[in-house]
Amino acid sequence: MSSHFFLYAKNIFFSEGVRSAVADLLASEEDVTFSKFEHFSQLVDILRLPLQKDERHWILCDIDSLPDDRINALHTIKEYYDKKNLQLVILLGENNISLFFALHSIFPQASWLLKNESLDNFLRFIQDVDSVVEEKIFFSRSLINYTQQKWLKRDFKNSISGDEWWLMEEIFKGKSLSKISSEQQIDVRRLSRCKRELMKKLNAKNNVELFNAFKHIVATPCA
Questions:
Q1: What's the helix, strand, coil split of the chain in %, to 5?
Q2: Residues near 121 by beta carbon (within 8 Å), at least 6 away in sequence
Q3: Which stretch of DSSP H or E encloses residue 90?
Q4: CA–CA separation, 108 vs 18, rounded Å?
Protein backbone atom coordinates (compact mmCIF):
# COMPACT_ATOMS: atom_id res chain seq x y z
CA MET A 1 0.00 0.00 0.00
CA SER A 2 1.33 3.45 -0.92
CA SER A 3 1.30 6.36 1.52
CA HIS A 4 1.01 10.04 0.70
CA PHE A 5 1.78 12.69 3.33
CA PHE A 6 0.28 16.17 2.86
CA LEU A 7 1.34 19.01 5.18
CA TYR A 8 -0.77 22.15 5.55
CA ALA A 9 1.31 24.82 7.32
CA LYS A 10 1.98 28.49 6.64
CA ASN A 11 5.28 28.69 8.49
CA ILE A 12 7.78 27.87 5.75
CA PHE A 13 10.59 27.09 8.19
CA PHE A 14 8.47 24.57 10.06
CA SER A 15 7.06 22.98 6.89
CA GLU A 16 10.50 22.67 5.30
CA GLY A 17 11.87 21.10 8.48
CA VAL A 18 9.07 18.53 8.48
CA ARG A 19 9.56 17.81 4.78
CA SER A 20 13.29 17.27 5.25
CA ALA A 21 12.85 15.01 8.28
CA VAL A 22 10.18 12.87 6.62
CA ALA A 23 12.18 12.63 3.38
CA ASP A 24 15.28 11.43 5.23
CA LEU A 25 13.30 8.98 7.34
CA LEU A 26 11.39 7.40 4.47
CA ALA A 27 14.02 7.73 1.75
CA SER A 28 14.32 3.97 1.33
CA GLU A 29 10.59 3.51 0.74
CA GLU A 30 9.53 3.86 -2.88
CA ASP A 31 5.79 4.00 -2.21
CA VAL A 32 5.82 7.10 0.04
CA THR A 33 5.43 10.70 -1.12
CA PHE A 34 5.34 14.04 0.71
CA SER A 35 3.76 17.35 -0.34
CA LYS A 36 3.33 20.67 1.48
CA PHE A 37 1.13 23.69 0.89
CA GLU A 38 0.05 26.82 2.78
CA HIS A 39 -3.41 27.73 1.44
CA PHE A 40 -6.59 26.36 3.02
CA SER A 41 -8.22 25.93 -0.39
CA GLN A 42 -5.41 23.52 -1.29
CA LEU A 43 -6.13 21.51 1.86
CA VAL A 44 -9.80 21.22 0.88
CA ASP A 45 -8.79 20.10 -2.63
CA ILE A 46 -6.61 17.35 -1.12
CA LEU A 47 -9.43 16.22 1.16
CA ARG A 48 -11.70 15.91 -1.88
CA LEU A 49 -9.30 13.71 -3.81
CA PRO A 50 -10.64 10.22 -4.59
CA LEU A 51 -8.64 7.44 -2.97
CA GLN A 52 -7.56 4.18 -4.56
CA LYS A 53 -7.95 0.97 -2.59
CA ASP A 54 -4.18 0.50 -2.31
CA GLU A 55 -3.28 3.99 -1.01
CA ARG A 56 -3.51 6.05 2.15
CA HIS A 57 -3.46 9.80 2.59
CA TRP A 58 -2.03 11.33 5.76
CA ILE A 59 -3.18 14.95 6.20
CA LEU A 60 -1.01 16.92 8.64
CA CYS A 61 -2.95 20.07 9.56
CA ASP A 62 -1.38 22.92 11.53
CA ILE A 63 -4.03 24.60 13.71
CA ASP A 64 -2.11 27.89 13.70
CA SER A 65 -2.38 28.02 9.90
CA LEU A 66 -6.19 27.92 9.71
CA PRO A 67 -7.94 30.96 8.18
CA ASP A 68 -9.53 33.56 10.45
CA ASP A 69 -12.93 31.84 10.46
CA ARG A 70 -11.43 28.84 12.24
CA ILE A 71 -14.62 27.20 13.46
CA ASN A 72 -16.10 26.95 9.97
CA ALA A 73 -12.72 25.81 8.63
CA LEU A 74 -12.59 23.00 11.19
CA HIS A 75 -16.06 21.79 10.28
CA THR A 76 -15.17 21.93 6.59
CA ILE A 77 -12.22 19.63 7.32
CA LYS A 78 -14.46 17.33 9.36
CA GLU A 79 -16.93 17.11 6.48
CA TYR A 80 -14.33 15.73 4.09
CA TYR A 81 -11.74 13.83 6.08
CA ASP A 82 -13.80 10.93 7.34
CA LYS A 83 -12.92 8.56 4.50
CA LYS A 84 -11.45 5.10 4.41
CA ASN A 85 -7.64 5.14 4.37
CA LEU A 86 -7.53 8.91 4.93
CA GLN A 87 -5.94 9.86 8.26
CA LEU A 88 -5.92 13.31 9.83
CA VAL A 89 -3.05 14.48 12.06
CA ILE A 90 -3.69 17.69 13.99
CA LEU A 91 -0.53 19.71 14.68
CA LEU A 92 -0.66 21.71 17.90
CA GLY A 93 1.71 24.36 19.20
CA GLU A 94 2.30 25.06 22.89
CA ASN A 95 0.23 28.22 22.55
CA ASN A 96 -2.96 26.36 21.57
CA ILE A 97 -2.64 23.19 23.62
CA SER A 98 -5.47 24.43 25.87
CA LEU A 99 -7.74 23.89 22.84
CA PHE A 100 -6.93 20.17 22.71
CA PHE A 101 -10.10 18.91 24.36
CA ALA A 102 -12.32 21.19 22.26
CA LEU A 103 -10.56 20.02 19.10
CA HIS A 104 -10.73 16.37 20.14
CA SER A 105 -14.51 16.67 20.46
CA ILE A 106 -14.61 17.71 16.79
CA PHE A 107 -12.04 15.16 15.57
CA PRO A 108 -12.25 12.10 17.86
CA GLN A 109 -10.69 9.86 15.18
CA ALA A 110 -7.74 12.14 14.40
CA SER A 111 -4.13 11.66 15.50
CA TRP A 112 -2.30 14.39 17.41
CA LEU A 113 1.23 15.77 17.25
CA LEU A 114 2.84 18.60 19.20
CA LYS A 115 5.04 20.76 17.01
CA ASN A 116 7.67 21.18 19.71
CA GLU A 117 8.32 17.45 20.09
CA SER A 118 11.94 16.38 20.07
CA LEU A 119 13.23 15.18 16.70
CA ASP A 120 13.42 11.60 18.00
CA ASN A 121 9.80 11.68 19.16
CA PHE A 122 8.68 13.26 15.90
CA LEU A 123 10.45 10.63 13.79
CA ARG A 124 9.05 7.85 15.97
CA PHE A 125 5.56 9.26 15.43
CA ILE A 126 6.00 9.32 11.63
CA GLN A 127 7.40 5.79 11.64
CA ASP A 128 4.45 4.56 13.67
CA VAL A 129 1.78 6.10 11.44
CA ASP A 130 3.51 4.88 8.28
CA SER A 131 3.98 1.31 9.49
CA VAL A 132 0.41 0.56 10.57
CA VAL A 133 -1.91 -0.68 7.85
CA GLU A 134 -5.22 -0.48 9.69
CA GLU A 135 -6.76 2.77 10.87
CA LYS A 136 -5.39 3.77 14.27
CA ILE A 137 -5.15 6.89 16.42
CA PHE A 138 -1.70 8.17 17.43
CA PHE A 139 -0.64 10.73 20.04
CA SER A 140 2.83 12.23 20.23
CA ARG A 141 4.72 11.51 23.44
CA SER A 142 4.48 14.98 25.02
CA LEU A 143 0.75 15.18 24.33
CA ILE A 144 0.23 11.79 25.96
CA ASN A 145 1.99 13.07 29.07
CA TYR A 146 -0.09 16.26 29.04
CA THR A 147 -3.47 14.51 28.72
CA GLN A 148 -2.58 11.85 31.27
CA GLN A 149 -1.70 14.51 33.82
CA LYS A 150 -4.92 16.41 33.15
CA TRP A 151 -7.12 13.32 33.43
CA LEU A 152 -5.39 11.95 36.51
CA LYS A 153 -5.62 15.30 38.31
CA ARG A 154 -9.08 16.07 36.88
CA ASP A 155 -7.57 19.44 36.02
CA PHE A 156 -9.54 21.01 33.20
CA LYS A 157 -9.85 24.56 34.54
CA ASN A 158 -7.46 25.96 31.91
CA SER A 159 -8.85 23.95 29.00
CA ILE A 160 -10.89 26.00 26.53
CA SER A 161 -14.28 24.50 25.74
CA GLY A 162 -15.78 24.41 22.25
CA ASP A 163 -18.46 26.94 23.28
CA GLU A 164 -15.86 29.35 24.66
CA TRP A 165 -13.76 29.09 21.52
CA TRP A 166 -16.80 29.65 19.29
CA LEU A 167 -17.86 32.70 21.31
CA MET A 168 -14.42 34.31 21.07
CA GLU A 169 -14.31 33.71 17.32
CA GLU A 170 -17.65 35.54 17.02
CA ILE A 171 -16.40 38.41 19.17
CA PHE A 172 -13.24 38.64 17.03
CA LYS A 173 -15.56 39.32 14.07
CA GLY A 174 -16.54 42.57 15.81
CA LYS A 175 -19.88 41.33 17.16
CA SER A 176 -21.30 42.32 20.53
CA LEU A 177 -22.83 39.77 22.87
CA SER A 178 -26.28 41.20 22.14
CA LYS A 179 -25.76 40.82 18.38
CA ILE A 180 -24.54 37.23 18.81
CA SER A 181 -27.53 36.55 21.05
CA SER A 182 -29.93 37.89 18.44
CA GLU A 183 -28.31 36.01 15.54
CA GLN A 184 -28.02 32.67 17.31
CA GLN A 185 -31.11 32.88 19.52
CA ILE A 186 -29.03 32.33 22.66
CA ASP A 187 -29.78 34.06 25.95
CA VAL A 188 -27.32 36.95 26.30
CA ARG A 189 -26.91 36.06 29.98
CA ARG A 190 -25.60 32.65 28.97
CA LEU A 191 -23.11 34.27 26.61
CA SER A 192 -22.03 36.72 29.30
CA ARG A 193 -21.51 33.86 31.76
CA CYS A 194 -19.44 31.95 29.18
CA LYS A 195 -17.29 35.04 28.62
CA ARG A 196 -16.76 35.57 32.35
CA GLU A 197 -15.69 31.95 32.80
CA LEU A 198 -13.17 32.33 29.99
CA MET A 199 -11.80 35.53 31.50
CA LYS A 200 -11.34 33.66 34.78
CA LYS A 201 -9.49 30.81 33.04
CA LEU A 202 -7.17 33.21 31.25
CA ASN A 203 -6.73 35.48 34.27
CA ALA A 204 -7.98 38.43 32.22
CA LYS A 205 -9.26 41.46 34.13
CA ASN A 206 -10.81 43.27 31.15
CA ASN A 207 -11.66 42.86 27.47
CA VAL A 208 -8.26 44.00 26.24
CA GLU A 209 -6.47 41.40 28.36
CA LEU A 210 -8.99 38.74 27.27
CA PHE A 211 -8.49 39.49 23.58
CA ASN A 212 -4.71 39.55 23.88
CA ALA A 213 -4.64 36.27 25.81
CA PHE A 214 -6.92 34.49 23.36
CA LYS A 215 -5.13 35.87 20.29
CA HIS A 216 -1.99 34.26 21.66
CA ILE A 217 -3.77 30.91 21.89
CA VAL A 218 -4.92 31.01 18.26
CA ALA A 219 -2.00 33.04 16.93
CA THR A 220 -1.04 32.60 13.29
CA PRO A 221 2.75 32.32 12.86
CA CYS A 222 4.62 34.53 10.46
CA ALA A 223 5.55 32.84 7.17
A1: 55, 15, 30
A2: 140, 141, 142
A3: strand 86-92
A4: 24
Interatomic CA distance for residues 19 and 12, integer angstroms: 10
DSSP string over 10-74: S-HHHHHHHHHHHHHHTTT-TTEEEEEE--HHHHHHHHHS---TTEEEEEEEEGGGS-S-HHHHH
Domains of the chain are 2-152 (3.40.50.2300), 162-217 (1.10.10)
Identify the bridge partners of residue 92 per DSSP, sorted by sequence position. 114
Q: Residue 206: enclosing H or E segment and its boundaries?
A: none
Residue 186 CB contacts under 8 Å (≥ 6 apart), including other chains: 180
Please, are residues 106 and 70 in contact by the beta-carbon 8 Å criterion?
A: no
Return the pLDDT at 221: 43
The model's pLDDT over 56-101, given as tens digits with 9 standing for 90+, comes to 888 999 998 999 888 889 989 988 876 656 788 999 988 887 888 8
State the pLDDT at residue 153.
60
Residue 88: φ, ψ to 5°: -105, 130
Q: Is 25 exposed, middle or buried (0-12, 13-18, 19+ CB in 10 A)?
A: middle
Q: Residue range 134-143: average pLDDT?
A: 74
Q: What percent of the chain has a predicted confidence (pLDDT) above 90? A: 21
CA distance 202 to 197: 9
